UniProtKB/TrEMBL annotation:
PANTHER family in alphabetical order: C2 DOMAIN-CONTAINING PROTEIN, SYNAPTOTAGMIN
Upper taxonomic lineage: Eukaryota, Metazoa, Chordata, Tunicata, Ascidiacea
Domain C2: from-to ranges: 1-134
Protein family: Belongs to the synaptotagmin family.
Protein's recorded name: C2 domain-containing protein
SMART domains according to UniProt: C2
Stretches for region Disordered: 136-163
Compositional bias ranges of the Polar residues kind: 143-156
InterPro entries listed in its UniProt record: C2_dom, C2_domain_sf
Source species: Ciona intestinalis (Transparent sea squirt)
């Protein structure tokens, strides 16, 4: 359950992460998840700000009761391409964290409930939180093509490229695009 509110006079967006229920067990290990929630504010494809909750250990029904506050101008929130993406993540201490699901909330979201939640928050003339349950969806990893260093020759003389396997994208290993290959 998420509660959204915006205080126009202070230009503060508050995302109150209250609780989740019936989270799936992580695939990376047997047993109950250790979930936390990452909340990111986007304008178009650019992430403006991000914050996260504390981890709640060994539960499929975590109670977070944590407010995450973002300083953001009203005109940014009014833009059609602004959205919040909330990821529920299993905190796997010995490896890569596992994404348990996500929800996107914004004025142009595909799901009407998420769009309505945003609209109700924006229509408030008082700073009253609007709380709603949302269904988590599996994030779809973007198709990525990474290029190797231009100085590496290939048999055809063109740049080499390769597709990052989906499993690597899901587990956060696709950051090799920032490294040079030598």
């Amino acid at each position: 359950m998420l509660a959204l509110s915006y205080l126009r006079s202070a230009e503060k967006l508050t995302v109150a992460v209250q609780k989740a229920r019936n989270l799936k067990e992580p695939e990376s290990r047997k047993g109950l998840p250790d979930p936390y929630v990452k909340v990111a504010l986007y304008k178009g494809k650019q992430r403006i700000k991000k914050k996260k909750t504390d981890t709640i250990h060994s539960t499929c029904n975590p109670v977070f009761n944590q407010a995450l506050t973002f300083s953001v101008p009203f005109d940014t929130l009014q833009a059609a391409d602004t959205k919040l993406i909330c990821h529920v993540v299993h905190d796997f201490k010995l490896g890569y964290n596992e994404d348990l699901g996500q929800v996107e909330i914004g004025p142009n979201c595909m799901d009407s409930e998420e769009r309505r939640h945003w609209s109700e928050m924006m229509a408030q003339h008082i700073n009253r939180p609007i709380a709603r349950w949302h269904h988590l969806k599996q994030p779809s990893p973007p198709t990525q093509r990474l290029s190797t260093d231009e100085n590496l020759p290939s048999s055809s003389g063109r740049r080499k490229s390769f597709a990052v396997p989906e499993a690597l994208q899901l587990h956060g290993l696709a950051d090799v695009s920032r490294r040079s290959f030598s």
